[in-house]
Amino acid sequence: MVKIMAKNKKQTSELPSDELVESKKDEIKSIFQQILDGEIDIKSGKKTVSDKLDIIKSELLLLKDKAIPYSVIKKILEDKIDLTISEQTLRQYCQTRLGFPKKQRAKKPSDEELQNIINKPIQNNEGNVDAKAALTKQDTYE
User: Fold this and answer.
1) What gap in Å lies between CA 76 and CA 64, rounded to an integer?
2) How far is Cα of residue 82 from the mean position of the Cα atoms in its chain?
3) Contacts of 4 (CB under 8 A, 6+ apart)
4) Is 70 exposed, middle or buried, given 0-12, 13-18 or 19+ CB atoms closer than 10 A?
5) Which of 23, 37, 79, 141 is the most exposed place for a label (fewest CB within 10 A)?
6) What are phi and psi for residue 83, nearest 5 degrees?
7) Which residues contact 60 (CB under 8 A, 6 or more apart)?
8) What is the dihedral angle through the alpha carbons of 74, 79, 84, 86, rounded to the nearest 10 degrees?
9) What is the pLDDT of residues 38-93, one digit of tens each?
């Protein structure tokens, strides 16, 4: 038997014997198999926001490729079905479970591309000036 006791923020435990664990292997295997076969329900009775979104997923799918802001969807859900949800949770649900597209971020330039930008000549009123000179040149304003 596992016995856990708390003493002054320290925990001690007593582990079961190897013989006990060995003797219960078949029983544990049977229980795990029943769970996999759906004979034993391991879900808690707790309902989550995702459970509620599952109910309206076909309606959410209507918006999949329409670029509707998640803030708008969130507000509609709050107003019409009294479902309070964060934009992040809604976004994560829509992207992972319903396949909504993720916003593409701008590609960060490589070190080589940055170096090319820095070394690229800059056109000004006086003619071509390299970027290093342009960065160090002091402009005077009158």
Assistant:
1) 16
2) 24
3) 11, 12, 13
4) buried
5) 141
6) -105, 110
7) 53, 73, 94, 98
8) 20
9) 888 777 778 889 999 999 999 999 999 898 999 999 999 999 999 999 999 999 99
Question: Is the pLDDT at 26 greater than 80, yes or no?
Answer: yes
In the chain, where are the structural domains located? 49-97
Distances (CA, A) of 90 to 5, 15, 61, 85, 97: 41, 43, 13, 7, 10
The answer to whether the beta carbons of residues 127 and 137 sit under 8 Å apart is no
Tokens of 113: 């591309």
Q: Quick one: pLDDT at residue 77?
A: 96
pLDDT of amino acid 140: 47
pLDDT at residue 101 tops 50: yes
- The tokens of 136 are what? 């160090």
Give the C-alpha distances (Å, rounded to integers) separating 55 from 35, 50, 58, 123: 24, 9, 8, 60
